[in-house]
Specification:
Number of domains: 2
Function: Arginine methyltransferase that can both catalyze the formation of omega-N monomethylarginine (MMA) and asymmetrical dimethylarginine (aDMA).
Oligomer: single chain
CATH superfamily of the largest domain: Hnrnp arginine n-methyltransferase1
GO biological process, one term: methylation
CATH architecture of the largest domain: Distorted Sandwich
Distance between the termini: 5 Å
Shape: elongated
Keywords: Methyltransferase, S-adenosyl-L-methionine, Transferase
Radius of gyration: 22 Å
Largest sheet: 7 strands, antiparallel
InterPro entries: Arg_MeTrfase, PRMT_dom, SAM-dependent_MTases_sf
Strand content: 25-35%
Order of helices and strands: EHHHHEHEHEEHEEHHEEHEEHEEEEEE
GO molecular function: histone methyltransferase activity; protein-arginine N-methyltransferase activity
Helix content: 10-25%
CATH topology of the largest domain: Hnrnp arginine n-methyltransferase1
Number of helices: 11
Length: about 400
């Protein structure tokens, strides 16, 4: 669930809804378990962690992910493109789910794959491995990365860890833990790099559908509903599909992640200052966030790791027919959730204002954004947006739950 409090014109709204993970409801599930060898946990498993893992026992979440062809086929392509680094090697799949990425690695010639998942979906993953006659190659470990034992170093880590706004759910921490526990020097992490972007957007249709509707309802003036409608529609970050036409400026890089070097401490709080210049005149309704991940080898830089995405670089690299491959000495594979790309189940995350701000062409929009792991639950993310434009300053605070 997403819950927010705001200081941009409307007070707190205290109604609570059922908590959700990025792909489905957090619910309790009961099933058989897969035998594992465990160590004493280095970090405690909280009730929030249990709820999070239980949510991923629900098959619908995995169906949604697997049916996301952009996601699943890009991972398959990346694994096969790096087959020479996987063939005959030891692989760990962090958060294996149904085991599909582990099977891709086995088919790419991996000597051994450790498929790790703390959710009860590990039971089904083990059955999937068996029915595909891969039990001699893939070992399913039911438990947290912090707890399970792997008695050898690994050559490759593969994981689909990205949440909404990239960092929601904090699953990247599990990849970092696996890297620090098991990865050999010079080993491979797929994906290797990630970049979180943001940009101001205009979305009159969304605002009209949610707010202006109440001005005339079957000929009845229901404008007293407007304040409540704004809170119900825009208090929470909205996961939805926008298009490039909604984006007012070139995007800003909020955070670049190198999975080979990033630390747990680095992810606890991320702050970035932004400075935008509107490319058109229109109402500014909020900020949209999206991300890319890349599948590179150690020592190969990401396509773009600047603090600000230059206009010419972004235009040349993100526009065009095929964004999954880049022309270079070694082709790189890219998974993008950008508005101008084919939609994924991540869509884009939009933080809407309660009231739009009119901006002129070339008007400056500047401020800062801070993303912080919640003290209540590290898988939740606090969002603090401070921004100003046209001589007016605003603050919006949100919590992604």
């Amino acid at each position: 669930m997403f819950s927010t409090s705001s200081h941009d014109g409307v007070g707190d709204f205290s109604e609570k809804r059922p908590r959700r993970s990025r792909r489905g409801r957090w619910r309790d599930t009961d099933s058989d378990t897969v035998s594992t060898v465990t160590l004493e946990a280095n970090t405690p498993c909280t009730e929030y962690d249990v709820a999070y893992f239980n949510s991923y026992a629900h098959l619908g979440i995995h169906e949604e992910m697997i049916k996301d062809r952009v996601r699943t086929e890009t991972y398959r392509d990346a694994i096969m493109r790096h087959q020479s680094f996987i063939r005959g090697k030891i692989v760990v799949d962090v958060g294996c789910g149904t085991g599909i990425l582990s099977i891709f690695c086995a088919r790419a010639g991996a000597k051994r794959v450790y498929a790790v998942d703390a959710s009860d979906i590990a039971v089904q993953a083990k059955a999937v491995v068996e029915v595909n006659n891969l039990s001699d190659t893939i070992t399913v470990l039911h438990g947290r990365v912090e707890d399970v034992r792997i008695d050898e170093k690994v050559d490759v880590i593969v994981s689909e860890w990205m949440g909404y706004m990239l960092l929601y759910e904090s699953m990247l921490g599990s990849v970092i833990t696996a890297r620090d526990r098991w990865l050999k020097p010079g080993g491979v992490i797929l994906p290797s790099h990630a970049t979180l972007y943001m940009a101001p957007i205009t979305h009159p249709d969304r605002y009209s559908d949610s707010i202006d509707f109440w001005r005339n309802v079957y000929g009845i003036n229901m404008s007293p509903m407007l304040q409540l409608a704004k809170q119900c529609a825009f208090e929470e970050p909205s996961v939805e599909i926008i298009t490039g036409e909604n984006v007012l400026t070139w995007p800003h890089v909020v955070k670049h992640v190198d999975c080979y070097t990033v630390t747990l401490q680095e992810l606890e709080s991320v702050t970035s200052s932004f400075h935008f210049k509107s490319m058109m005149r229109g109402p500014l309704h909020g900020f949209a966030f999206w991300f890319d991940v890349e599948f590179n080898m150690p020592g190969i830089a990401a396509i773009n790791n600047n603090n600000q995405a230059p206009e010419d670089s972004y235009n040349s690299s993100l526009n065009g027919g095929n964004r999954k491959k880049r022309s270079s000495s070694e082709e790189k594979v890219l998974l993008s959730t950008a508005p101008e790309d084919p939609p994924t189940h991540w869509q884009q995350t939009v933080i809407y204002f309660y009231d739009p701000i009119d901006v002129e062409q070339d008007q400056i929009i500047e401020g800062s954004v801070t993303l912080t792991q919640s003290k209540e639950n590290r898988r939740f993310m606090n969002i603090h947006l401070a921004y100003n434009s046209g001589g007016r300053s605003f603050v919006k605070e949100s919590v992604m739950r």
